[in-house]
Design brief:
alpha/beta; single chain; 12 strands; eight-stranded mixed β-sheet; two-stranded antiparallel ribbon; 254 residues
């Protein structure tokens, strides 16, 4: 008989994740703690919320923001709603079963309050495996592979939903850096922050943390080029910098 999956306990909230398509993991917690915040964000979108852990972290970080979490997996949405109701911020968190593509297109069947809302921050730990062996579990496969949300769709839909000064924050495999930057550029999204994450200082980077924002049009609707690219930073699992970054969330790290 399989062992029960215990809730993941943070300093200010707990996350049940036994029914979610993706369990609480280092990627999600790292992104939720790292994401650069725009000034006084009022509306935040969490794409592919799973158990809702990133949305909960942002509710803790952004005390005035209303956070919408979306997912295409019914069980994940149901569990995220339960986690939101059990949190200190139930009035500021909502979970909806809808795809990013449907939301960005203004689908009239959308359960959202408006056809195409505008967000100050869009954040996602998206599906990113493209050529890897497919997981036999269909819900895990859906959560982990780009079949349901390509990089091009992620950037294009996010650009359509971002407020003028809004930001898009992502975590992806390190080898996807060139691909995601090329997709982002096609939709006028320019990088503002880039951190390469190492699980071991002796190994190549495992993930990239990337924040982007819209480039203002210069002429004829063509986005301005960056005056300079962001200077990449490095972060290693278990380092003093990592503990400081996640210290407000993990138990026993202060």
């Amino acid at each position: 008989m399989p062992r029960p999956v215990e809730p993941f306990r943070f300093r200010q909230f707990s996350v049940a994740h036994d029914r979610s398509s993706m369990r609480v993991n280092t990627d999600a917690v790292l992104l939720g703690a790292w994401a650069p915040l725009p000034a006084s964000p009022e509306r935040i979108l969490d794409i592919g919320t799973g158990s809702g852990v990133i949305a909960l972290m942002l509710a803790q970080r952004c005390p005035e923001a209303k956070i919408t979490a979306i997912d295409i997996d019914e069980a994940s949405v149901s569990q995220a709603r339960e986690n939101f109701l059990a949190s200190p911020w139930p009035e500021r968190l909502e979970a909806e079963k809808i795809s990013l593509q449907e939301l960005a297109s203004g689908n009239p069947m959308s359960p959202m309050e408006t056809m195409q809302p505008s967000f100050d921050l869009i954040i996602s730990n998206p599906p990113y495996f493209r050529d890897a062996l497919r997981n036999p579990d269909p819900t895990r496969r859906q959560a982990r592979h780009t079949d349901t949300l390509s990089f091009d769709e992620l950037c294009g839909c996010s650009a359509a939903l971002l407020a003028p000064e809004g930001r898009l924050a992502l975590i992806l495999p390190a080898d996807a850096e060139a691909d995601i930057l090329a997709c982002a550029a096609r939709y006028g999204l320019r990088p503002t922050h880039l951190t390469r994450f190492y699980s071991n200082a002796a190994q190549p980077p495992k993930r990239i943390l990337l924040a982007l924002k819209k480039s203002p049009p210069c002429r004829d609707g063509i986005p301005c080029r960056l005056s300079r690219e962001p200077i990449p930073e490095n972060l290693t699992l278990g380092s003093e910098e990592y503990r400081a970054l996640c210290g407000e969330f993990y138990l026993g790290t202060q």
